Every structure is written in structure tokens, then in C-alpha cells.
Amino acid sequence: MIFKKLSLLLALVVSALSAFANAEFTGPEMFSPGYYINLYPDLKEQFGEKPDWVLQVSKHYREIGVKEGRSPNPLFVPEYYLERYPDLKKAFGPANYFGVLHHWIK
Fold it and tell me: What pTM, to 2 d.p., does this model score?
């Protein structure tokens, strides 16, 4: 459990440095396509070479990634957020990442 939390935190820090250098936050969820595709190698492999990769990864996040608890930007890691605020975990459930995302935005 501790290793998983440390891994998430390390991924957040490393990716944050890269994403902030490119400063590409957009949309109401503050989605960062560059951060998202670089954080998840499976997405980079699937969409990285396509000319419309930004649209593809944005669509992936909206339709799949948010449900899986993937991080849309370096400022928000859903699993960490739920662990940090146990009351939200009780209110939303352990895997309601969509609800947690909207709570974070507000």
C-alpha cells in the first residue's frame, strides 16, 4: 500500500515537471493531453504517432480514463485524492472517480 502511494506520488512529481514546462491545460477538467499521454505508455503506444493524438487522448480520458481513475493533469491524481480525504471515499465510494473529479474541480 505504501509502495503504491509512493509510486503515484513519484509519477505525479516527475510528470508535473514535464507538463508544467509545456503548460497545456484546457477544458473544465483541466485536462492536459501531453501529460496524459506521457504518463500512460499504453496510450502513447496507441495514439502517439497519430496526427490527431490530442483529440484521441482527450476522447479516451472522457470515455475511459476517468472511469479507470487515470490522472488528467499533474495536479490531480484520483487515487491519491481519495486516500487523502477518507470522507470522500465514504461519500463517493472507493472507485467513483468521476464524482471525485467533479468534487476536486469545485
Answer: 0.69
Nearest to 76 by CA among 34, 18, 35: 35
Distance CA 14, CA 10 (A): 6
- Write b or e for each residue in 26-57: b if 16 or more Cβ atoms lie within 10 A of its Cβ, otherwise e: eeebebbbbbbbbbbeebeeebeeeeebbebb
pLDDT at 16 > cutoff 70: no
Dist CA 9 CA 56 (whole Å)? 26
When divided into structural domains, the chain yields a total of 1
**Residue range 59-69, pLDDT digits in tens:** 999 999 999 99
**Rounded (10°) CA dihedral 85, 101, 90, 1:** -60
d(CA 65, CA 31) in angstroms, rounded, equals: 11
- Tell me the residue range of the domain where 36 lies: 2-105
| Cβ 34 vs Cβ 88: under 8 Å | no
